[in-house]
Structure formats: structure tokens, C-alpha cells
Specification:
- The structure holds two protein chains of two kinds.
- Chain A is mainly β.
- Helices cover about 0% and strands about 55% of the residues of chain A.
- Chain A has no helices and eleven strands.
- In chain A, a hairpin with a 4-residue loop joins strand 9 and strand 10.
- The mean pLDDT of chain A is about 90.
- Chain B is mainly beta.
- In chain B, about 0% of the residues lie in helices and about 50% in strands.
- In chain B, strands 2, 4, 5, 6, 9, 10 and 11 form a seven-stranded mixed β-sheet that branches. Chain B has a four-stranded antiparallel β-sheet with strand order 1-3-8-7, with no helix packed on it.
- In chain B, a hairpin with a 5-residue loop joins strand 7 and strand 8.
- The chains are: A mainly beta, B mainly beta.
- Chains A and B meet through strand 4, strand 5, strand 9 and strand 10 of A and strand 4, strand 5 and strand 10 of B.
Chain lengths: ~110, ~110
């Protein structure tokens, strides 16, 4: 069974601070996705990383896929209250044809 | 708007009952996934269909079943409901069953009383 552990589970920071969320697994994934979910809504895709070592930037968000394609990180610079939500990583296994979701990181950004 | 439509948005039912949740995927998407999310928990994969056929199965209970119809919409049937089945049920769709991104609906909140 493929498992994706995210850390930290909870993070409460003030506006303007930087943070990093980690997504780790012992399994290799063919690609990895990051989603943000707001209360009562479905997860919304932020980015997909495919190549080991790949780095993608989305405004203040930087995503990195580990060289071995087993782990990933999400770094947010100068967090804003609008970044508040549940961040989920999800690993795709082309053979299994399904996404395995991480345990989630709940981020709260306060003024 | 992700383009994935789920109905109903809310459902309250009694233990022992049966309900059907419906999902219309994005136009052109052949693959449909069903997920369960309990309060403050992560997403648990239930089942995936691709172009009408079951493609992958996760932690889906025997009391639950799903199907995908020729028009590609999907239904998740939950029977003999228990209090612990109360959760948000999400449907997602993607163009293929492989590595492509999945787009989620807004979910159906099921409350079993």
C-alpha cells in the first residue's frame, strides 16, 4: 500500500511568514500533485510535478519533486490569509491509475 | 468551477437506509474517481471507473457500490447506512486513467442519523 505522510499536520502562522510543507513516501510515484481544499469545497489542483528534481513556481508558492520521486515539498513565501486551507499532496501511479492522497496539512494564516 | 457536478449537495438519512450519489464529470473526461472524507480527515480513495469499466478499487466497503454509465456520469450507491458513513463524498474526473490531473466536484455531505 502506498502511503504519503505530510508534515506538519497543522500550522498556524502570521501573515508575512514563510513556511514549508513536506510530503514523504517510501514509494516512487510517476507524478505528484498538490491540492488546496477550503472548508466545504472540493480540493483544487495547484500543480503537478513529473520529473525528479523538478521545481515549479506559482506566484509565492514553490513546489519541488524529490530526485527519487518519493517526496515533495511546498514552500510558501510571505503567507497571506488567503493561503489558509488544507493542503494535500497526491501521488499518481500510472499502473494503478489512481491518486494516493497524503494525510494533509492544515494551514491557518492570521493577520 | 471545476466542471464536475455532484448531486445532491447535502443528504440526511437514517441508519439502515440506502442512498445514491451522482456525479457528472467534466466534458471529455473518461475517468471518474470517488473519494470519502471524514471530518477533518484526509481523502480516502474508494473506486475509479474509466469509460464505463471499473479501473481501480480502494477501501470501498461491500455495502457500497458504484457504476459509470454510457454517458460517463457515475453513481455511488451506499446501502445499510451506519452512523460512521457520515462524511463528505467527492467525485473527481480526469481525461485518462493514468497520471493526468483530477478535477473535483464540490462534494456531497452525507449525514446519517
Amino acid at each position: 500500500t502506498q502511503l504519503l505522510e505530510q508534515s506538519p499536520q497543522f500550522l498556524s502562522i502570521q501573515e508575512g511568514e514563510n513556511l514549508t510543507v513536506y510530503c514523504n513516501s517510501s514509494s516512487v510515484f510517476s507524478s505528484l500533485q498538490w491540492y488546496r481544499q477550503e472548508p466545504g469545497e472540493g480540493p483544487v489542483l495547484l500543480v503537478t510535478v513529473v520529473t525528479g528534481g523538478e521545481v515549479k513556481k506559482l506566484k509565492r508558492l514553490t513546489f519541488q519533486f524529490g530526485d527519487a520521486r518519493k517526496d515533495s515539498s511546498l514552500h510558501i513565501t510571505a503567507a497571506q490569509p488567503g493561503d489558509t486551507g488544507l493542503y494535500l499532496c497526491a501521488g499518481a501511479d500510472g499502473t494503478a491509475s489512481k491518486l494516493t492522497f497524503g494525510t494533509g496539512t492544515r494551514l491557518q494564516v492570521t493577520l | 468551477d471545476s466542471g464536475v457536478t455532484q448531486t445532491p449537495k447535502h443528504l440526511i438519512t437514517a441508519t439502515g437506509q440506502r442512498v445514491t450519489l451522482r456525479c457528472s464529470p467534466r466534458s471529455g473526461d473518461l475517468s471518474v474517481y470517488w473519494y470519502q472524507q471524514s471530518l477533518d480527515q484526509g481523502l480516502q480513495f474508494l473506486i475509479q471507473y474509466y469509460n464505463g469499466e471499473e479501473r481501480a478499487k480502494g477501501n470501498i466497503l461491500e455495502r457500497f457500490s458504484a457504476q459509470q454509465f454510457p454517458d460517463l456520469h457515475s453513481e455511488l450507491n451506499l446501502s445499510s447506512l451506519e452512523l460512521g458513513d457520515s462524511a463528505l463524498y467527492f467525485c473527481a474526473s480526469s481525461k485518462t486513467g493514468g497520471n493526468t490531473e483530477a478535477f473535483f466536484g464540490q462534494g456531497t455531505r452525507l449525514t446519517v442519523v
